[in-house]
Amino acid sequence: MDELSEKKVPFFFITDFLSKNVLVYNEEELANSGLLIDFQSFSNLKKRDDFTKKTELKSYPETIESFKKGFDCVQKNIRFGNSYLINYTRKTEIETNLTLEEIFYHSRAKYKVLFQDFFVFFSPETFVKIIDGKIYTYPMKGTIDASIENASEVLKNNPKEKAEHYTVVDLLRNDMSMVADDVKVDKFQYIDFIKTKQKNLFAMSSEISGIVKSEFKGKIGSMLQKLLPAGSILGAPKQKTLDIILEAEDYNRGFYTGVCGWFDGENLDSCVMIRFIEKEKEKLFFKSGGGITHMSKLEDEYEEMKNKIYVPIH
Questions:
Q1: Is the pLDDT of residue 162 over 80?
Q2: 8 A C-beta contact, residue 259 and residue 273
Q3: 154 and 146 in contact (C-beta within 8 Å)?
């Protein structure tokens, strides 16, 4: 990635959660990769017909008792002071009348990728953008059912959601300081509206920016190596929290919560791969979760994990 970015050669990259599988495609390779990409800054879509199917989606979440096993492990580590925010995720079997390709083409999201017949995601979350030597990140932490009365105010003032958001903003500000100077929080706790067939959600984000340090100019790979895994889907402090996640989650995240992005020769746009559906043999699984702090309640976290199982087709 450094080699290509130093030569200003456009490329698309995709990396799994643990950065063990990193795939890089130049434009020519991308044309034959079977990858379909739809970002605001880049798309390789072909035109599709209008969508007339009525979306059906059924999910089969684990029991709250099963969810509790990992949740208790996470809470125990928080009580011991090993971490103060842990992103705990689960894998839920789903059934839908749509193919992965149909979900990709007809869902609405800021970032969408279809990786052959393996996985699809429709993510609302930017990881980092680099524009004219400036780097931006937009941590998204805290969601609420939009139908709740005064939902956005309730979300902004919820002590648990607020603590979680503050922690992630602080973590990403520190991360950004490794690769950028003059790091600052430009916007704090703004609310995004996410419309879906199942239910509408509000999500809370902030914007952090800095100026890329001279030693990282044109070195996209080196920069990402410093920043990954993404703080918003991990927790803090990073290394210890990663150990706890690997203990608490009894499945392999794979590419879920990894990062992918498009470098156009000058600028970068990348996202966190959340809102993620994966095919395993002939079954489909939706991977979702949320941040756990010492204030988290089991029932609320279980509901949040289930709330995030949706397809944004409307």
A1: yes
A2: yes
A3: no
- Which residue, among 292, 73, 72, has the nearest Cα to 168 in the 3D structure? 292
- Write out pLDDT tens, residues 90-149: 999 999 999 999 999 988 899 999 999 999 999 988 999 999 999 999 888 877 888 888
Closest CA to 254 of 223, 237, 229: 229
Per-residue tokens: 51: 């969508």
Pairing of the two strands 111-115 and 201-212: unpaired
Bridge partners (DSSP) of residue 260 are: 14, 271
For 8, the token pair is 């200003």
Q: Which helix (H) or strand (E) holds 257?
A: none
Q: What is the DSSP string of 96-137?
A: ESS-HHHHHHH---SEEEEETTTEEEEE--EEEEEETTEEEE
Q: Does residue 159 have a cis bond before it (omega within 30 degrees)?
A: no
Q: What is the pLDDT of residue 196?
A: 67
Residues sharing a CB contact under 8 Å with residue 42, sequence separation 6 or more, in sequence order:
12, 262, 264, 269
Contact 160, 295 (CB under 8 A): yes
Q: Which amino acid is at 245?
A: I
How far is residue 252's CA from residue 61's CA, in Å, rounded to a whole number?
A: 17
Question: From the CA atom positions of the chain, what is the Rg in Å?
Answer: 19
Q: Nearest to residue 139, comparing CAs of 297, 308, 271?
A: 271
